[in-house]
Amino acid sequence: MTRDTMHLRNPFRMNDWDNRTFFWTFQAIQFVFLAVVCLDLIGYYVPIAREALAFLYLTFLPGVLVLKALRLHDLGTIETVLYSAGLSLVIVMLTGLTANVVYPLLGYTRPFSFPILLLTLVAVVQVLLYLALTRDKGRTGESPRLAVPSSPAVPFLILLPFLAIIGTYMRNNYHMVTLLFLLLVLIAVIGLAVGFDRFIPKSCYPLGIYAIALSLLYHTSLISEYVWGYDIHHELHLANGVLISGLWDMAIPYNTNGMLSVVALVPIYSLICDLDPVWIFKIVYPLLFALVPLGLYRAVEKQTDARIGFFSIFFFFSFFTFYTEMISLARQQIAELFLALTVLVMIDKTMDRGKQAFLMIAFAFAMIVSHYGLSYIYLFSLVPAWLLLAVPERLQSRLPERLARGAALLRHDPLAPAGTGGRTTPVRTLILPYIVIFAVLVYLWYSTVAEGTALATVTGIGDKIWNTLFMDSFNPTTAQGMHILTSQSTTPLHGLAKIVHVATQALIAVGLLATLARRERWRIEPEYLAVSLVFLLINVAGIVVPFFASSLNTSRLYHITLIFLAPFAIIGGIALYERLTGWIRAVRVAPFMGTAYQALSVFFVVFFLFNSGLLYQVMDDNPTSMALDTAGDKPVFNSREVQGAVWLFSEGNERPVYVDGTRWWLLLGFNPGSQRYVPANASLLEPNSYLYFGTYNLVRESIRIETQDQAVTTATYTDADRFIRSRHRIYDNAGSAVYYR
């Protein structure tokens, strides 16, 4: 043990262990897992043991075996953990897909049942173990050691997720948000500490990234004892449908029904971990999604340095979509993990090309079967990004040397790797065959499952954009991003927040220009830079192109682009700071100016305080936080509202059910085909129909009425009494009510 670290056998790099140690350790883990499952089945429940062991078994062990079979060694702790998790999820989803197709042909009508799934997964793991040991034959040597920083920051960072868990428990049961306030303040302090280079050493940055990300996710996902948000209710409905029937019906015509991240991954985790799907969404998926910032941090750190990497990811997960909207989009959480892994593989120029191609295609397939929206955006960005890389190379290689020397544009390729001056053809990982394979997989999957609805959806969006592109560009009613920019802020504080958001986009633009101008300093890989330039154009399109941003939601679109663009906000901030301080020092004496990182830490902590809603809550200024504000009308539902929905659909009748704009999402998880939005005119309610009220409707005697104007949705609240005057209350549990006429 040294003064700074203590060294242990590294369990996160099991694929680097010698074969003998690896085999016996692996089998011991598997034996303990199966023993705990058997004890649970006969009535001896060991608290948390089955859930934890099943999570580790599903999330890491298959991927470790694939890495060993590929003979991918010495990747480092972070890359090994990330690739193991990604490959494990690929194996689990493919296992579910194969079981769903093959077992019914063999006479097993319920492939998604615990006994058959457990046996299948164990069999798959044993096959992978055999392949790993035979293909990596002769692996000897001392097992790698885990360097654990002895800094006091380690226990402090580890405690953050537990603070989020306890804080949400206090909020749910006692309506106390003090601990959640403290959590957000501590995260802000960590941002300042890194900027001022205090308390948090660079060796703790990866732990800090994962701990903060998980804390932010848990501080919202764990509010209430039921899923909350929007699309996640439909995802829950589909996952429950698979568990109830024991079979995934591939023909149900919903886009989400074609996503294995919902219809295969959730049921498998639920059955093997013995957890209700609600808790898979609330506990397990955040554990997986928190790997996204870790993967992006590693990708940025490898191209720049640790502090730029930290602040890039601090910016990325400070944006509210990461821990609000994404909580209710489980399929996109998994897809973003595969995109982050794709980025990490793409920038690695040292990996064997065959193994690199295998990983990129595996993660591409997994992204496609996880979320259609993200896959389409990434696919449509690949072609122009490839052209940005390929065209200058082709021109330089084919034009006569004298002409090439005379063309100023061709003497310097801003996308060439740093240090080459644009004169050599680099080894590229973004190549045309990869794009073609990606496109073919997209077409085959989306045109086959769920009756091709995912393919029809993007075609419909494309037609709508094309038909209005030249007439309604920059129109706030059709371009959602333009509406956000031009709409009046509700208060001066919210107006200031909008300015801060616009400033981050300006920093991104400056950072991209600085990177292009000084390639020798900002050593961003060409593939990463090319996709980033396309993503910047996607951001612009979200503001000016009709119906483009609204197909996803403007905030979700910006969140997706930050996967690539976040580092350029930091680079832009550093470039601006250096130019500004240089000018100040030139005109007057300025002995103390601080550093760029100190200024950036202050700016992005302010950005975080706005996005988390902490400032609005403290100032009581139209609070926005899902976790801190317990009084507003938000898609967060209590147990009585859920009980009312269960009662409403328990008889299985198909009568129309009217519900307001917020409670609509709750009922989406029960029977999507029967619900209707409450109309503004109460006389338009159909006879022989139900009207569902939630707690907010009953307490405030108010209904949320939503109206759609092109791409913009507006909401108003109206008196609930006029909707129930001629109706009979047939159910009431003091938290929800059902009326009938």
Automatic annotation (TrEMBL):
Membrane-traversing stretches: 21-46, 52-70, 82-106, 112-133, 153-170, 176-196, 208-230, 250-272, 279-300, 306-322, 357-389, 430-446, 528-551, 557-577, 589-610
Keywords: Membrane, Transmembrane, Transmembrane helix
InterPro entries to which the protein is assigned, alphabetical: DUF2206_membrane (IPR018701)
Domain of life: Archaea
Pfam families on file: DUF2206
Species this chain originates from: Methanoculleus chikugoensis
Name used for this protein in its record: DUF2206 domain-containing protein
